[in-house]
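Run log // design_07
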């Protein structure tokens, strides 16, 4: 065995006993073995015929193994000859002595010959192996080419039969996912365009007997005389596709992934200059898709997201909740969106702020745009683009309500004027009808369009969303989260939205918290106090209800026995939600007490009489449980809360953390802490979602 040339400073040369023999080491091993055997045999008087018999056995054994390995005849002959020549020399050397010049010289000649022959056969075997691999590849290519030729011939006949056109197929590309293929064909002369085939998409799909959910759609080829026919053979739209777990940074300039095509390709939206329109009826997966869009915005290092959702802000709350619930340990979590408006007043303030920011940017950054030699604001992490996501914004634009018309006017102003200033919108709509999508501004500016059908036919006129596109039917995408998407960069076609769940939204918010941009100084100056104080407690108090983590009680005594009875919920830790009229539980209790006092009269306030004095037998209902504790010492859990806040030190504690520490619901704790701060027992640090209470010793 040859030593390994690599050396080790501590162990010396390393021998690789598992390495195989090469031409040189193999010949050297054979000749030295023959010399050793001849020397031993001559010294011990071993019969010379034994060596010849051993050589013959070795030749037979190697011949059998070589045949089993299907080696070339040249290699088999070389191995057998080596065994026989070595055995013959050993037999001769045992008889006449191994240490004569004739014996040594013939052995050396024999070794050189064996090495040369081994090297030659090794090259021959390598060439044979490469040729076998190439032949197998050529066979696969021939079979694949035959399959493609069969597909091409089949679809030439089909297009001729269904569309009345004779095309010439130039290539058939099989999709890597195995879900279909693409045909690249040349259109017949005479000015035929790809739309001629696109309008027959349903008929082509039926003629090909494609499974439900699979289509054959035609789109533009490399030039106007070519057509691409995408044929889906496996329905990938039916199941759920989880949102990718790669939360790497994105950019408005490189596109934002919004889902996948049937062939597995990501489809991206480029929104630097474009607005977007998302249409989806109830149950189509529109809300989930809006979260897909917000996920892309949260990952982008040069986008600030403002959300308007007049339906209780439900579209944006999951992106704020991780910041509201982040405890005092570790780095603070920033919300996944920069601003959320759930009321008409807040929405109007947001839109007016966007108008001021857009107008100021047009003036303040003239020098920057001149240096960059562009008429578009150079959007970056330092000057981020503002994306306004307006849930059911198309319905706002079509509303006849006077208040909604004011909002619509501001929305249209943003869409119309601030493309260059880096402010764009994403509008959603429940239906694709002329009444909803009739505004020319929507159709002109919202070039990135998505229609999630969910199989819904009523109110889903796809020609309103994708004018000029033919062969599109809601029945082609009857699954939640499936529909059609078209952008200037990607022609309209089927796609599937990713499924994203609340836990993953929270993961994305935490993973991207440090990379969220901030509004640039010039824009923040124009935005004013309305933007700067967007996270003030007074403006985010409505979010407190989202922090309730207690399970609803199912005990029989808390369920009303009959309609019309008094609900004395003040005896429970958790208060019921505010009624539809807008009064919270405390206001409702006060109003109820005032009415009962006026009609019946009630008992005296607690604490105004001795503890052993019994309430009078008559005198009306005793609803003192509905009154707040007016003792300056506060509720019984307050001392424990004060101790916990004092222990937390200068960082203080958020109300949610205090509620967890004392085992009370957060609304009750917030009220008690607020009263304590008014008495001077605590100091309140107002920092929006990160506001805390600090003990005076650490203030």
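design_07 sequence
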């Amino acid at each position: 065995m040859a030593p390994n040339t690599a050396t080790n400073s501590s162990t010396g040369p390393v021998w690789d006993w598992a390495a195989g023999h090469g031409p040189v080491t193999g010949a050297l091993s054979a000749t030295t073995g023959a010399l050793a055997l001849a020397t031993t045999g001559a010294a011990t008087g071993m019969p010379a015929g034994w060596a010849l018999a051993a050589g013959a056995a070795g030749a037979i054994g190697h011949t059998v193994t070589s045949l089993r390995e299907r080696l070339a005849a040249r290699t088999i002959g070389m191995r057998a000859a080596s065994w026989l020549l070595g055995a013959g020399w050993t037999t001769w050397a045992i008889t006449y002595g191994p240490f004569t010049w004739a014996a040594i010289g013939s052995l050396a000649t024999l070794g050189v010959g064996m090495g040369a022959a081994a090297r030659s056969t090794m090259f021959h075997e390598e060439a044979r192996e490469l040729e076998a691999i190439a032949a197998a590849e050529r066979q696969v290519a021939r079979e694949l080419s035959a399959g493609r030729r069969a597909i091409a011939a089949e679809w030439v006949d089909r297009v001729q039969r269904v569309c009345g056109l004779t095309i010439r197929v130039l290539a058939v590309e099989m999709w890597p996912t195995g879900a279909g293929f693409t045909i690249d064909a040349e259109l017949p002369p005479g000015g035929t365009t790809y739309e001629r085939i696109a309008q027959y998409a349903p008929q082509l799909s039926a003629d090909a007997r494609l499974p439900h959910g699979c289509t054959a759609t035609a789109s533009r080829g490399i030039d106007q005389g070519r057509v691409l026919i995408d044929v889906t053979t496996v329905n990938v739209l039916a199941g759920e596709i989880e949102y990718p777990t790669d939360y790497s940074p994105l950019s408005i300039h490189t596109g934002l992934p919004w889902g996948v095509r049937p062939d597995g390709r990501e489809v991206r939206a480029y929104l630097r200059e474009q607005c977007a329109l998302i249409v989806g009826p109830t149950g189509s997966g529109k809300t989930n898709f809006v979260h897909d869009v917000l996920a892309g915005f949260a990952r982008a290092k040069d986008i600030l997201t403002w959300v308007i959702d007049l339906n209780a802000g439900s579209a944006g709350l999951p992106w704020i909740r991780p910041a509201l619930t982040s405890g005092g340990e570790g780095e603070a979590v920033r919300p996944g969106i920069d601003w959320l408006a759930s009321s008409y007043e807040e929405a109007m303030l947001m839109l007016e702020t966007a108008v001021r920011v857009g107008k100021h940017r047009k003036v303040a950054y003239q020098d920057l745009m001149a240096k960059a030699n562009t008429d578009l604001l150079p959007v970056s992490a330092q000057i981020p683009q503002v994306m306004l996501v307006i849930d059911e914004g198309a319905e706002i634009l079509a509303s006849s309500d006077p208040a909604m018309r004011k909002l619509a006017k501001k929305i249209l102003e943003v869409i119309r004027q601030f493309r260059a200033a880096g402010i764009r919108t994403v509008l959603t709509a429940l239906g694709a009808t002329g009444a909803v999508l009739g505004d020319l501004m929507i159709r002109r500016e919202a070039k990135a369009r998505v229609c999630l059908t969910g199989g819904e036919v009523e109110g889903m006129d796809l020609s309103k969303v994708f004018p000029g596109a033919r062969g599109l039917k809601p029945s082609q995408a009857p699954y939640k989260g499936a529909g059609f998407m078209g952008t200037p960069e990607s022609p309209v076609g089927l796609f599937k939205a990713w499924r994203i769940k609340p836990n993953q939204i929270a993961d994305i918010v935490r993973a991207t918290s440090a990379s969220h941009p901030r509004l640039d100084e010039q824009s923040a100056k124009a935005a004013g106090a309305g933007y700067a104080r967007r996270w003030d407690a007074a403006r985010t108090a409505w979010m407190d209800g989202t922090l309730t983590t207690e399970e609803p009680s199912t005990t029989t005594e808390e369920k009303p026995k009959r309609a019309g009875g008094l609900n004395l919920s003040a005896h429970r830790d958790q208060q019921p939600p505010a009624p539809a009229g807008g009064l919270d539980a405390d206001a409702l209790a006060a109003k109820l007490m005032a009415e009962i006092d006026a009609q019946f009269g009630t008992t005296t306030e607690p604490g105004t009489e001795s503890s052993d004095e019994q309430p009078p037998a008559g005198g009306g209902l005793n609803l003192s449980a509905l009154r707040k504790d007016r003792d300056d010492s506060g509720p019984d859990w307050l001392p424990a809360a004060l101790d916990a806040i004092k222990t937390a030190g200068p960082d203080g504690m958020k109300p949610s953390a205090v509620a967890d520490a004392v085992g009370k619901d957060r609304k009750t704790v917030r009220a008690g802490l607020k009263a304590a701060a008014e008495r001077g027992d605590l100091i309140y640090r107002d920092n929006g979602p990160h506001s805390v209470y600090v003990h005076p010793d650490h203030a």
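The chain has four domains: 22-135, 164-232, 256-260+268-517, 638-698.
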